[in-house]
Specification:
Blueprint: H1 3-14, H2 31-42, E1 46-50, E2 57-63, E3 66-72, H3 79-95, E4 104-105, E5 114-118, E6 121-129, H4 144-161, H5 180-187, H6 194-215, E7 220-223, E8 232-236, E9 242-247, E10 254-257, H7 258-269, H8 281-290, H9 295-322, H10 327-343, H11 348-358, H12 404-409, E11 414-416, E12 438-439, E13 442-446, E14 451-453, E15 458-462, E16 468-471, E17 476-480, E18 482-483, E19 489-491, E20 496-500, E21 502-503, E22 506-514, E23 524-525, H13 530-535, H14 541-545, H15 558-565, E24 580-584, E25 587-590, E26 595-598, H16 611-623, H17 633-644, E27 652-656, H18 659-674, E28 679-682, H19 691-695, E29 714-717, H20 735-748, E30 755-758, H21 774-784, E31 788-792, E32 817-820, E33 831-835, H22 837-842, H23 857-872, H24 875-896, E34 900-906, E35 909-914, H25 925-937, E36 940-941, E37 943-945, E38 951-954, H26 962-978
Parallel strand pairs: 26-36, 28-29, 28-30, 30-31, 31-32
Antiparallel strand pairs: 1-2, 2-3, 3-6, 4-6, 5-6, 7-10, 8-9, 11-13, 12-23, 13-22, 14-20, 15-16, 15-19, 16-17, 17-22, 18-20, 21-22, 24-25, 25-26, 27-33, 32-33, 34-35, 35-38, 37-38
Helix pairs in contact: 1-5, 4-7, 4-8, 5-6, 5-9, 6-9, 7-9, 9-10, 9-11, 16-23, 17-23, 20-21, 24-26
């Protein structure tokens, strides 16, 4: 578009000379010309490269004394403004000495602003310190911690500039949000895309109207005006996240609303991968903690975000029209539109309410007053359905059925749902985005139709889809499911509106109140914005029952209560853990109805909530539960089933209640049999928390002092890690002979081991198979000195490896003692020790053995049912097939993402090891933790393992499907591609 008509239109619309603010781009200056300016005006020589810019011209300079940025100002910027920018930087350098800033270097005459001529045009330039660091404007994902740091930085700069003064300029500043509507109304008409232009205009005018009542009370000061992802520099933290440490580009410095500083920062977050309006909340919290926001500022904040996004969109389009060759401006168009789309995706009133909730200043609830009962024939005491994640009736996956809600009301004359409830029935699984689960209205389920009456006088509107809305003096009432003969128009209180419509043999009325007069509100909200939507969606229950409901309130203090009453050493996953209240197969659901793919729970081998197991426990508990000193059938049958799964000589069973107890007992059996205590354990292993099992646990991830605090009777051999251990690749074959030699050496030194204990598949390191022949060599050496061999199958046994039921089978050996737990009870406290008869009998020398819960009737039935389901549902075969498929998908990711050093494991016992360098194998420990956090946001539960905590522990329930394996692989690919 030609510049002249645009300028004329600006004058017509605003009465302002176009050159005052419709900024024309600086004429290009080639690098030779920039070098000449650099030498003559600043006495600096070096290499120069064009950095690109929207309206100024920026050049990177590398000279003998350091790196700089030569900044050529747009002619529209006055010299006084350039000096103010330099003064503001110096002011901040004093107030925030740790902040990296672009301080100006004086020219040859001592002035920081230097004039020069290009083709007869007078320009000004400055030489600024290059601020080292990396930008974050590439639209990759921004973690909440990074967003919070952006908000904190904006708050710190706003607070520091509060007492900064400088001469005011009379130049119209288009980036000052006080001028936003004028800028938008001037530029939008010249945008060729009329549909988008009109949409931006409507949104801007609505946002401006929301700011206007607060405008005169909003604090004004000097602001940076552009603290965005594009204008911060970052250092990469240990976890791989770029954390802001400096600020550049003070070109928009000037007076403005203080809250506009935050609005600008928030807007810049909205184009990043996976972001949405709720993504800005950490920035708002952090800003408020540094520079508290007044109520009026909170009310104006989101409308200002909309205005900022709108200004960026129209000005970006204008810049491209004026300077089509400006690749910098053209490249920004898509992300600027993404910011606008996100900003207007939620009503400003909703976001304001959400911001208030986030800052601990919730809006008071809207009062609901009805002058007439809507359903006069409905009794007051209508029961409320429980559709939450804790519902007793939505078991065994019933919540996934399409008619789950109606089914819960079946057989009742009337039943209602709860306002504000996070409905399990709205949960989705295997999805990266959290579903809309929070009910913003209520539903009334009826066995017979009832007549619906207007609760107040107002205007009724009938919509094409059959929905009705009634507008009176208060909130708008929306009705769904009414067979109404009534025409649109005025109604009086108590006037019949129709009857509740029938659908599939039931009559369901949907009611919703909304303070938003300009739209049909959604019926459900996502958890991240639920508080905001509920603030504009009052509870309509009173309209149908005649009284306010006494509903249970959400326990937002549960984690604090846990910390007070539950020993802190019993840690929880995640710093801010989801409240998990439901499980089904290989999925978990939190209290807000967010579904997660469970890639972690090797305990629940059958999956969560298996009906065969719950039914069996229910039947047995009604019949009998006692201890194994009594004589009953199930303890015998379970013992026989276990021995039938093992080599013939392992014929005797002890039943216990945990893996720790199983390992402890196994060690005591070895000590009793051999008459000695020395024990050989593998480094980097975990076996339990009792005295004996902890003594042979050598993993420093579980106990940082594991190796130095071992009792003298514990001796270790090197971890047989073929990937990163002392012997790697083909050299790993030496682990076995070296461990055998160590056992022989101990015997020669007068410490013949009573036992060697180890996992037959190196589980704690992330699922690394032992070198071929390792256990045979170690077992032979142990037995040669009179010791026993213990196979700890607690994690790897029960078919999880896919190829074999027991891990030791892979090595072609038979241990003397096998320990098993975890999978054995599918989450029920159950474990076992299986050994030879003579070893079991040797325990008599120590007294007798008894475990109160081990082998109880209920525990035995649990163990039997787990074995039945493993067999009947062919879960070992599933582990082999799906696990093999998943490993293939993970290896494909490894080929594309260098952070993946290796994929370990077999079946559904897998590990993905992250390294910073594939040559040095430096563990990516902090990155792994951050990746787990991001995967949780995408609906996947997984955690780190190994002594270096750099391996994703992939041990899902063995009912995992290929589809869910694909979901996990896609989520991991997303994180590794777009950041964490």
């Amino acid at each position: 578009m030609n510049e002249r008509p645009l300028a004329a239109e600006a004058e017509r619309l605003m009465g302002l000379p176009s050159t005052d603010w419709l900024v024309r781009p600086v004429a290009p200056i080639d690098e030779a010309g920039a070098s000449a300016v650099l030498a003559t005006r600043f006495g600096v020589r070096g290499t120069v490269r064009d950095l690109g810019s929207q309206q100024d011209r920026n050049y990177g300079v590398r000279g003998a004394a350091g790196e700089y940025v030569l900044k050529v100002a747009n002619p529209a910027t006055q010299t006084a403004e350039l000096r103010s920018q330099c003064d503001a930087v110096e002011h901040l350098a004093r107030a925030l000495p740790g902040l990296r800033l672009p301080r100006a270097r004086p020219g040859t005459d001592g002035d920081v602003v230097q004039p020069f001529l290009v083709d007869g045009a007078a320009l000004s330039c400055r030489l600024l310190d290059f601020v080292p660091g990396e930008p974050i404007m590439d639209s990759r994902y921004l973690a909440p911690a990074v967003v919070a740091r952006l908000g904190e930085l904006a708050g710190q700069i706003a607070a520091a500039l509060a007492d900064f003064t400088a001469p005011e300029t009379d130049r119209f500043r288009p980036w000052d949000l006080r001028n936003a509507l004028e800028v938008i109304e001037t530029l939008a008409p010249h945008w060729p895309d009329r549909t988008r232009a009109d949409r931006v205009l409507r949104a801007a005018r609505t946002a401006h109207a929301l700011v206007e009542p607060h405008a005169k009370d909003l604090p004004v000061q000097f602001v940076h005006g552009d603290i965005t992802d594009n204008n911060v520099v970052c250092e990469t933290a240990r976890d791989g996240r770029r954390m802001p440490v400096g600020v550049i580009d003070f070109g928009d410095l000037g007076t403005g609303w203080t809250v506009a500083e935050l609005a600008v920062t928030c807007t810049s977050v909205l184009h990043h991968h996976g972001s949405g309006p709720a993504s800005v909340l950490p920035a708002v919290r952090a800003f408020d903690a540094v520079r508290p926001l007044a109520d009026g500022e909170v009310a104006a904040l989101w409308p200002l975000v909309v205005l900022r996004a709108a200004v960026m969109v129209v000005s970006g389009q204008y810049d491209v029209l004026q300077d089509p060759g400006n690749g910098y401006a053209s490249a920004a168009l898509d992300r600027e539109w993404a910011m606008f789309e996100s900003a207007v995706s939620v009503p400003a009133e909703v976001m304001t309410a959400q911001l208030r909730e986030t800052l601990g200043r919730p809006q008071p609830p809207v009062a609901v007053v009805a002058t007439h009962r809507m359903l006069p024939d409905l009794p007051d005491d209508v029961p409320a359905l429980d559709l939450s994640a804790q519902s007793d009736d939505l078991h065994t996956g019933r919540w996934l059925e399409a008619d789950a809600e109606a089914a819960q009301a079946s057989g009742l004359a009337a039943a209602r749902t709860r306002h504000g409830e996070f409905r399990l029935t709205r949960t989705t699984i295997d999805t990266a985005q959290a579903p809309a689960t929070c009910a913003l209205g209520v539903d009334l389920h009826l066995a017979e139709p009832l007549e619906v009456h207007a609760p107040w006088a107002g205007t009724l509107t009938r919509h094409a889809d059959g929905t009705l809305d009634l507008r009176g003096e208060g909130p708008v009432l929306w009705l769904h499911g009414v067979d109404s003969p009534a025409a649109s128009g005025p109604v009086v209180a108590g006037q019949p509106l129709g009857t509740v419509a029938e659908r599939d043999g039931r009559h369901t009325l949907g009611l919703q109140l909304s303070t938003l007069a300009d739209r049909n509100p959604p019926r459900f909200a996502t958890p991240d914005l639920a508080a905001g939507w509920l603030a504009v969606s009052p509870d309509p229950t009173l309209l149908i029952t005649g009284r306010d409901p006494l509903e249970p309130s959400a326990d937002g203090d549960l984690l604090a209560r846990r910390d007070r009453a539950f020993a802190a050493v019993q840690e929880h996953y995640y710093d801010d853990p989801p409240r998990i209240e439901r499980g089904w197969r290989h999925h978990l659901v939190d209290a807000q109805g967010r579904g997660y793919l469970d890639m972690l729970n090797n305990v629940t081998v059958l999956g969560h909530g298996h009906p065969a197991l719950s039914d069996a426990v229910h039947r047995q508990w009604r019949r009998l539960n006692t201890n194994s000193r009594f004589h009953y059938g199930s303890v015998v049958e379970l013992s026989e089933r276990l021995t039938a799964l093992l080599p013939e000589e392992l014929d005797t069973v002890f039943l216990v209640n945990s893996g720790s107890e199983a390992v402890d007992l196994a060690l005591r059996l070895a000590w009793a049999t051999t008459g000695r205590q020395d024990t050989v354990a593998v480094e980097e292993a975990y076996h339990g928390w009792t005295y004996a099992s902890d003594a042979v646990s050598t993993s420093i991830a579980d106990n940082p002092n594991a190796l130095s605090s071992r009792p003298s009777w514990v001796h270790t051999v090197a971890a047989p890690n073929s990937y990163r251990g002392r012997r790697r690749g083909a050299e790993a074959r030496r682990y076995g002979p070296e461990a055998a030699a160590r056992i022989t050496e101990l015997a020669e030194q007068g410490h013949p081991p009573a036992a060697f204990i180890g996992e037959p598949f190196y589980g704690n390191a992330g699922g690394i198979p032992l070198p071929d022949g390792y256990l045979r060599q170690v077992y032979d050496a142990t037995r040669a000195v009179g010791g026993l061999c213990i196979a700890d199958e607690v994690q790897v046994g029960y078919g999880r490896l896919g190829t074999h039921f027991w891990g030791f089978e892979q090595q072609g050996v038979v241990p003397d003692i096998v320990t098993v737990a975890k999978a054995m009870g599918n989450g029920h406290p159950l474990g076992a020790v299986i050994t030879r008869r003579e070893i079991a009998d040797a325990y008599r020398t120590q007294g007798y053995f008894f475990s109160s819960a081990g082998g109880s009737p209920v525990s035995s039935v649990v163990g039997l049912t787990v074995l039945d389901v493993l067999r009947d549902e062919r879960l070992q075969d599933n582990a082999l097939e799906v696990g093999g498929y998943l490993r293939q998908r993970l290896e494909e990711l490894a080929a594309r993402h260098p952070l993946i050093g290796a994929v370990h494991g077999s079946g559904l016992y897998l590990g993905v090891e992250f390294v910073r360098d594939r040559q040095t194998l430096e563990p990516a420990t902090e990155e792994t933790a951050a990746i787990c956090d991001r995967l949780r946001e995408l609906g996947v539960i997984v955690q780190p393992t190994s002594d270096r905590q750099c391996v994703l522990k992939i041990k899902p329930p063995m009912c995992l499907t290929r589809h869910s394996a694909d979901v996990f692989a896609a989520a991991l690919d997303d994180v590794l591609t777009n950041g964490w």
